[in-house]
Amino acid sequence: MKIEKDHQRFRQIVRGKIRDDLRRFLTRGELIGKEGKHLISIPVRGIELPHFRYGDNNDGGVGAGDGSVGDSLDPNGDGTGPGGTAPGAHILEVEVSLDELADILAEELQLPRIQPKGMHQITTRRDRYSGLRQSGPESLRHFKRTFRQALRRQLMTGSYDPANPRIVPIRSDKRYRSWKTVLKPQSNAVIVYMMDVSGSMGDEQKELVRLEAFWIDAWLRRNYEGIENRYIVHDVRAQEVDRDTFYHLREDGGTKISSAFKLAKQIMDQHYRPEEWNIYLFHFSDGDNSSETDSRECCRILREQILPHINLFGYCQVASAYGSGNFINVVHEYLDDVDCVLTSKVNSKDDIYDSLKTFFAKGK
Questions:
Q1: pTM of the complete model
Q2: Is residue 117 part of a domain?
Q3: Does 264 share its domain with 137?
Q4: Residue 41, domain extent
Q5: How many separate domains does the chain show?
Q6: Each residue of 157-187: pLDDT tens digit?
Q7: Is residue 177 part of a domain?
């Protein structure tokens, strides 16, 4: 249908506008607050809804009566007064699904699709309607097929009256949907987010983490049927928290990064077998740690206990006036040879775009 083609064309225009301003959209924190039922309202500039445009006014006349070019439409007014000179902004709110946003992100960043591991290890049971039967519960009656069978029977027996086209199904006409249980392989993934909440991590740093984690989540959910999120915060001690606490908790004190990695390993051992789950670990910090010794201990834990069992470890270092920023250097020194270890620096919101490409360009 023509209206469907027009709608598809409109969606292509919207996608193009979002792609043109993708860097700006990646940094809009209010988009996260607009998320609901997998749809996000996005203000897009430069798109107008279809509307009527009126013809040239130089033909003369002001309505149905007599008049001349330039006559005032208000007979009681003098026609004076300032006119507007600024162009319209033409801002249109459009609803875009998270999947669409993830696809636009992938196209612009040239991200390859992720090939899950262990995708045949987990199966889900789903009921799929696959045929018809002559008996079943009334809730599954197929009304169209029942009507068709009744009409066919009345035509064959000669009881159908075109002048009074009344179709009355009998018991033998009724058709019911039948189903079968399908075992479907499902690829699942768990994302463990870890964040330093010591005194050197302020609100500005947490906002960068919040934005980065939102887009990480959107991309991974586009690649897996099942996603679980776990959240760990730490200063000198680590604890698991819920999502809201993760983004809003503010603590003081020192930093011991190894405490977070030990807790992440404990969660993996208890809940996520690596042959069945695709495991992603992301750690956010300003790079400050209690000692060089603990930084080296972190790398030992990663290399020996965590990295052999996961898809990706991403370390994102956010800029802070109070942090030393040295942890990323230790990671490069001790883990630079490990393919699944990726690091990025985010000094401002503008760096989130490149950080996401760093983490997912390899399709892990």
A1: 0.64
A2: no
A3: no
A4: 1-49+89-110
A5: 3
A6: 888 888 888 888 888 888 888 876 654 545 6
A7: yes
The domain that holds 338 is classified in CATH as 3.40.50.410
Regions of the chain where pLDDT drops below 70: 1-96, 113, 115-130, 180-187, 251, 323
- Domain-embedded: residue 306: yes
Q: Looking at the structure, do residues 197 and 303 belong to the same domain, yes or no?
A: yes
Q: Which two tokens stand for residue 71?
A: 């006559």
Domain-located, residue 128: yes
CA atoms of 105 and 120, how far apart (whole Å): 28
pLDDT tens digits, one per residue of 18-67: 666 666 666 665 555 445 445 555 555 444 445 455 555 555 544 556 66
Quickly list H helices, the chain. 2-20, 22-26, 30-33, 98-109, 143-157, 203-223, 243-248, 258-271, 292-301, 327-335, 352-360
Q: Tell me if 257 sits within 8 A of 285, measured CB to CB.
A: yes
Q: So what's the pLDDT on residue 310?
A: 93
| Helix or strand holding residue 96 (H, E) | strand 91-97
**CB of 334 within 8 A of CB of 341?**
no
Specify which residues 141 forms β-bridges with. 176
Measured distance CA(200)–CA(281) in Å, rounded = 22
- Asked if 290 and 348 sit in the same domain, the reply is yes
- The predicted pLDDT at position 328 comes to 95
Q: Give the largest Cα separation in the chain, rounded.
A: 94
Residues 233, 195 contacting (CB under 8 angstroms): yes
Give CA torsion, residues 53, 59, 60, 63, to 10 deg: -40
Residues 6+ apart with CB under 8 A from 310: 268, 274, 279, 280, 281, 340
SS (H, E, C) 296-345: HHHHHHHHHHHHHHCCEEEEEEECCCCCCCCHHHHHHHHHCCCCCEEEEE
- pLDDT score of 103: 81
| Residue 42 shares a structural domain with residue 97 | yes
CA 43, 107, 360, 118 torsion-angle sign = positive
Spatial separation of the C-alpha atoms in residues 32 and 218, rounded to whole Å: 11
Q: Are 140 and 200 contained in the same domain? A: no
Contact between 90 and 46 under an 8 Å Cβ cutoff? The reply is yes
